[in-house]
Amino acid sequence: MSTLAQGTIVVRPRRIGATTATLLAGAVALAVGFALPLLLPSKIAMSLFAQALFDALLATSVGFLFLQNGRISFGQAAFSGLGGYAFGILVARGLVGSEIALLIALLLPTLVAFLLGLVIARVSGVAHAMLTLAVGQAFYEVAFRWRELAKGDDGMSFDLPRRIFGLSSRGLQDPAFMVVLAWCLLVVVLVGLALFARSRIGMVTAAIRDNEERARFLGYSTTLPRALVYALAAFIAAIAGILQASYNGYIAPQMFHWTVSGYALIMAILGGAKFIIGPAVGAVVLFYVKELAGQVAEYWPAIVGGALVLVTLTMPQGIIGILRLLWLRRPPQ
Amino acid sequence: MSEPALEGFALTRRFGGFVALDGVNIALKRGEIRGLIGPNGAGKSTLIDVLTGRAKNRRGRVVLNGEDVSELSPQQRRKRGMARSFQRTNIFPELTVEQQLRVASWAVADADIAEVMNELNLTALAARPAGDISYGDQRRLDLALALVGRPQVLLLDEPAAGLTMDESLALARTLRDLVNRWNVTVLLVEHDMQVVFTICDRLTVLHLGRFLSEGSCAEIRADPTVVAAYLGTQA
Questions:
Q1: Closest-CA residue in chain B for A209?
Q2: Which of A13, B94, B111, B182 could be stapled to B149 by a disulfide with Cβ–Cβ 3.0 to 4.6 Å?
Q3: Taking 60 as the threshold, does the pLDDT of residue A164 lie above it?
Q4: Local structure of B40: helix, strand or coil
Q5: Interface contacts (A, B; CB < 8 Å)
């Protein structure tokens, strides 16, 4: 057998193995998700963990944009906010059925991000970060000032429809149900992103991220694949926004604010933005660090900020990067 | 007589007041390896950039296999059979060798990558991230990316830059062999005259952005204007 055939054989089984391992890990994680109400000690613990999972979804969205496009966003809250607002407003006004409202709330941010991506994908570095910040704040200003839309800066409460997809919607505001739902959605998103990264389009977008010029000279249009990544990232952010809005029964302009995007970025960096699971881990860790710091000190943001500076300087690969390093350096069995 | 594989007519490129390329004409016969030589600043890389669409030519036309491609993007030219490599190694450092060759193949109708990997001795490196392999291997990978899908016209900008003499000559022999078997037309920019004289059929000489001379290797070596402008300076 020729060496070239041998080379192919070496690589292909690994890819199949990795896919199978990803699916198996996803299945195990889903099973863990259904056990969460039994594992968490109280409704308050479930509620806190559910909110940490909303953050995890938004951080995953930011991390995916960095991992697959090599772009840093300070405006990803625009898409979680848009998802939450679209769902809340459509449901509160009874403009469409709850299922259609959900669909619109998922697709509207995705479409907006795709169209924006066609423009801002051409920009990189600080200019890109500033553009995303401007887009996010533009949405914030609209939500803040347009009182007829959703009561402006007061925000708007809304009642969930009685049923969604034939099921009672009361569970969406029950911590025990929401923590399972958010966990399962996060697992599905992470598995989906892992499969995407190994797919043809995933590898093409990774190549464009690595070296856009070379990709063009191989025959690729680079704008559309980049815009697709923006759209997928916005879709994930929209899930976070819809879950948050449903759980709280409340939408407010703060959902769009750049500080929400900034925290999501910090979470992604803390967990390890070069790993698909990293941002989610960073989000959960930071959420609980914030909770803990808030209980012991009035000026907790300063404590969190100092800790973050230290962590970023000492472990730029994030938590998952450190764990990976420890795993690779483990003594031989 | 068959039409040239690649032609450039009156190609001109300016950077502000500096004229990098001044009305250069070039025509490559199908299957030939044409060396493009000249001192630094002669316009060699600029000519490749203009021919491949990386730089817009202010005047002039580029014709590929009889089709005017002057207004086409680099990706459109690639799909019509024109590939290139770059002066500096231009690969995808975080993808494995095999992954990036696959990405290259998908752009040209799922071309076979095993052939290119084998020809350029990359098979053993298939699973390694490109950023982790040696510089010499990266240069061969760079060439492999351009060769995926058997392009009809290949423009190489100093493919042997930074390689040892032995590596350069090995690369040159591989290239000569592939060109003969695949009937690829090559425009080669190279400062290593040993490589140039080993594999090129004909040479075009540029000087200060203008055409200076053209001929076989023997003719160029004997051309007093080329010796004065360029070869005379070679150690």
A1: B92
A2: B111
A3: yes
A4: coil
A5: 85
Yes or no, beta carbons of B92 and A207 under 8 Å apart: yes
Beta-strand (E) ranges in chain A? 156-157, 163-164, 167-168, 250-251
SS3 per residue for A220-261: CCCHHHHHHHHHHHHHHHHHHHHHHHHHHCEECHHHHCHHHH
CA pair distance B136, B155, nearest whole angstrom: 19
**Span B1-81+156-235 CATH architecture:** 3-Layer(aba) Sandwich (3.40)
Residue A122 clears pLDDT 70, i.e. is over it: yes
Mean pLDDT to the nearest integer, A98-105: 95
Highest mean pLDDT among A101-110, A117-126, B8-17: A101-110
B117 shares contact with chain A (CB less than 8 Å): yes
- Which residues 6+ apart lie within 8 Å of A175 measured at CB? A43, A44, A46, A47, A50
The yes/no answer to whether this complex scores an ipTM above 0.85 is: yes
Percent of all residues in chain A with a pLDDT value above 90, rounded to a whole number:
73
Mean pLDDT of the region B90-111: 92
Alpha carbon distance B83, B76 (integer Å):
11
How far, in Å, are A145, A197, A288 from residue A255 at the CA level?
Answer: 14, 29, 20
Task: Measure the CA–CA gap between B6 and A243, rounded to whole angstroms.
Answer: 58
pTM beyond 0.90, yes or no: no
Report the alpha-carbon distance of residue B130 to residue B127 in Å, rounded. Answer: 9
Lowest mean per-residue pLDDT among A12-16, A74-78, A127-131, A263-267? A12-16
Instruction: Give the domain ranges of chain B.
Output: 1-81+156-235, 87-150
A14 contacts B124? CB cut-off 8 A: no
Mutate to test the interface with B, among A2, A4, A8, A11 (most CBs of B within 10 A): A4
Mean pLDDT rounded to a whole number for chain A: 90
Residue (of A100, A120, A109, A57) closest to A231 by Cα position: A109
Whole-angstrom distance, CA of residue B235 vs CA of residue B232? 8
Structure tokens at A42: 């109280």
What's the CA angle centered on A208, arms A203 and A211, to 5 degrees? 120
